[in-house]
Amino acid sequence: MNRINERLIFLKLFLENPKEIGSITPSSRFLLDAMVSKIDFETAKCIVEYGPGTGSITRILLNKSRKDCNIVVFEKNKKLADYLKKRFSDRRLVVVNSNAESSQKYLERFKIKADYVVCSIPLALLDKKQKIKILATAKNILNDEGLYVSYLYLFSLNALKESKAYMKNLNCDFIFLNLPPAIVLSSKNIL
Ligand SMILES: C[S@@+](CC[C@H](N)C(=O)[O-])C[C@H]1O[C@@H](n2cnc3c(N)ncnc32)[C@H](O)[C@@H]1O
């Protein structure tokens, strides 16, 4: 699948459900690099991704991760989850067609904790209750030293203020070479 087809899938699904998809196009290379730069691939044994979409971050996670790293992605949209299952055939990857909120039950079943949760769900568009549920679930599945990584578009400054309330020692990296410009957020202390 080339970049143009990926963009078309994204656009089509965005038009069907703008609130859930949250973006008309997959993230730029600059934003993806900034997200994955937070991950120590030498040590990571379990990476969970929320809202992988067409798999632009998933692809990098698979390319960079150790051979024994588990990568578990939770994609709510069935068409996208089916697409990801077809796109990647890698025994390290588990694609779960379910929402991020259900991830705790899956990780408990696999008896693992995550070193990283990488979240691309458009949290700024969700109501407070759902947002807190997703963050609380991420907290529960992360190990003690685990890192939560996410991004916001720069036009949602209120969301940035809100994120600061939910995450202590929040690290913010501004990515201007993305449309729209974005902020990568990372924290070991959520909620
Ligand atoms: C902005 S797209 C992410 C795209 C991709 N990760 C990227 O960076 O190009 C957001 C994705 O989150 C998914 N999503 C929204 N709410 C979700 C939830 N509660 N649990 C899991 N996935 C969700 C959407 O279906 C969509 O694929």
Account of the protein in words:
With 191 residues, this protein is α/β, with parallel strands linked by helices. It has one domain (3-190): 3-Layer(aba) Sandwich (Rossmann fold). It contains 8 helices and 9 strands. The chain has helices at 3-16, 18-21, 29-36, 56-64, 78-87, 103-110, 128-141, 157-166, and strands spanning 46-50, 70-74, 93-96, 114-119, 142-153, 167-168, 171-175, 182-187, 189-190. The protein has a 7-stranded mixed beta sheet. Strands 6-9 form a two-stranded antiparallel ribbon. α6 packs parallel to α7. The longest helix is centred in the N-terminal third of the chain and has 14 residues, at 3-16. The N and C termini lie far apart (38 Å). The mean pLDDT is 93. The structure holds S-adenosylmethionine (SAM).
Number of strands: 9
Instruction: Supply the helix-strand structural class.
Output: alpha/beta
Bound ions, cofactors and other small molecules, one mention each? S-adenosylmethionine
Q: What top-tier CATH class fits best?
A: Alpha Beta
| Overall mean pLDDT | 93
CATH architecture: 3-Layer(aba) Sandwich
List the domain count as a whole number.
1
Cross-sheet strand order for the largest sheet: 3-2-1-4-5-8-7
Sheet having the most strands: 7 strands, mixed
Rg over alpha carbons: 15 Å
State the end-to-end CA separation: 38 Å
Which topology does CATH recognise? Rossmann fold
SSE sequence, one letter per element? HHHEHEHEHEHEHEEEE
Query: Which parts are unreliable, with pLDDT below 50 for 5 consecutive residues or more?
Result: none
Instruction: Give the overall shape.
Output: globular
Helical content stands at 40-55%
CATH superfamily: Vaccinia Virus protein VP39
Instruction: Please count the helical segments.
Output: 8
β content, as a range? 15-25%
